[in-house]
Specification:
The chain is globular and about 60 Å long. A hairpin with a 6-residue loop joins strand 13 and strand 14. The chain has a domain of 242 residues: 3-Layer(bba) Sandwich (FAD/NAD(P)-binding domain). The two termini are 26 Å apart. Helix 1 runs parallel beside helix 8, helix 8 packs antiparallel against helix 10 and helix 11 packs across helix 12. The longest helix has 23 residues. By secondary structure, the protein is of the alpha+beta class.
Length: 390
């Protein structure tokens, strides 16, 4: 359920093991290939995509970064990822590009990917599961399956099919949002810049050497109409201050996203398994959303292959526990980065921010914690060997 990175990668991994699957996606192929989402791949995610045979274009076009920068108190602090992690890096490659690669791989292999097929209900989660979905013409069809993987995001239907008696939702809403732009302008730096500023957080990223992806912290209740392009560029430069100089260019896309943290427990019920944003949401500050989805489906793919090849159900039973280990690690890191860098309008919290930022400047151990979490040492890198090479 869902033709995002989670559903498509799971289908691809199952195909490589000889297990048949069907992917249902509510939106059109054009929509899912164009929607701009995350763009930072952990080193483990990069290696998993390569081992799965869907990383060739990523290797050619992705931007390998050996660190990120923090701008605070008038200066830049650089995190040297290879030196801090034993050689690991990150790759900037848009989520929509990962989706394009996976769709092409599934269709080239004769995979069954059904776009504009809106799932409406599930039946018999403890037996032969029936999935009812609506076609573009309004007619309804039904699929029968051994298992359903709910990879349909935070707005999909699968999360709601966990019974209220077992479903626990842990969440936190933040009192601010990110205003993001995709602009035809060279990035402010060849590596990401995270800004802690008294006017609010900012992030300077990119999608290519000619496309900037920048964000500023705004109040949760603000609207896009309050932010014409000229005001956004002025505010970006104010928050970057003297750390770097931005280049103004045409804004191709503008978005406004509230920030929240959310974890669903358990991530399974009967023969339904949740993966990706259907099971957890992280604030984008830690760049973890897509990477967590990849971790989930590698764990689920291995469990399903064990079931079909050897009749073993231990991996399926342990799915939630195994996933929650990397989920809570990434949730903590994303929460920590969010608390560290955003304007919180609380003198005590601001004092805590200054203390932590200064600790990062003087302590290699503190910088190593950030580098290890950012590159995926404690998440995706743990699962690289779970994907057969080939």
């Amino acid at each position: 359920m869902g033709a995002g990175p989670a559903g498509l990668l799971l289908s691809h991994l199952l195909h490589q093991a000889g297990v048949r699957s069907v992917v249902l996606e509510t939106r059109s192929r054009a929509y899912v290939e164009q929607r701009v989402r995350a763009g930072v791949l952990e080193d483990g995610t990069r290696q998993i995509l390569l081992r799965a045979g869907v990383g060739e274009r990523m290797e050619r076009q992705g931007l390998v970064h050996e660190g990120v920068n923090f701008a605070f108190e008038g200066s830049l602090l650089h995190f040297d990822f290879p030196a801090l992690t034993g050689g690991h890096t990150i790759t900037v490659y848009g989520q929509q590009e990962v989706v394009k690669d996976l769709i092409r791989a599934r269709l080239d292999a004769g995979g069954d990917v059904r776009f504009e097929a809106e799932a409406v209900r599930l039946e018999d989660l403890d037996g032969v599961v029936r999935v009812y979905y609506r076609n573009p013409d309004g007619s309804e069809d039904c699929l029968e399956a051994d298992f359903v993987a709910g990879c349909d995001g935070s707005q999909g239907i699968c999360r709601g099919w966990l019974p209220d008696s077992v479903r626990r939702v842990h969440q936190r809403a933040y009192p601010f949002a990110w205003l993001g732009i995709l602009a035809e302008a060279p990035p402010a730096s060849h590596e990401l810049i995270y800004v802690n500023h008294h006017r609010g957080f900012a992030l300077f990223s990119m999608r290519s050497p000619h496309l900037s992806r920048n964000y500023i912290q705004v109040r949760a209740e603000e609207t896009l109409e309050e932010w014409p392009d000229e005001r956004i560029w002025e505010e970006l430069q104010r928050r970057l201050d003297r750390a770097a100089q931005i280049t103004v260019g045409p804004v191709r896309e503008k978005s406004l996203a509230p920030l929240r943290s959310l974890v669903v427990e358990p991530m399974q019920h009967g023969r339904l398994f949740l993966a990706g944003d259907a099971a957890h949401v992280v604030p984008p500050t830690g760049a973890k959303g897509l990477n967590l989805a990849v971790c989930d489906v590698v764990v689920l793919a291995r469990a399903l292959v064990d079931y079909y090849r050897r009749g073993e159900e231990a991996g399926l039973r342990a799915y939630t526990d195994r996933c929650l280990e990397h989920v809570w690690q990434a949730e903590h890191f994303s929460w920590w980065m969010t608390q560290l860098l955003h304007r919180l309008d609380d003198p005590f919290e601001e004092g805590m921010q200054r203390a932590q930022l200064r600790a990062l400047r003087r302590s290699e151990a503190a910088r190593r914690y950030l580098a290890e979490n950012y590159t995926g040492v404690h998440t995706s890198l743990r699962y690289v060997d779970w994907v057969p090479a080939g």
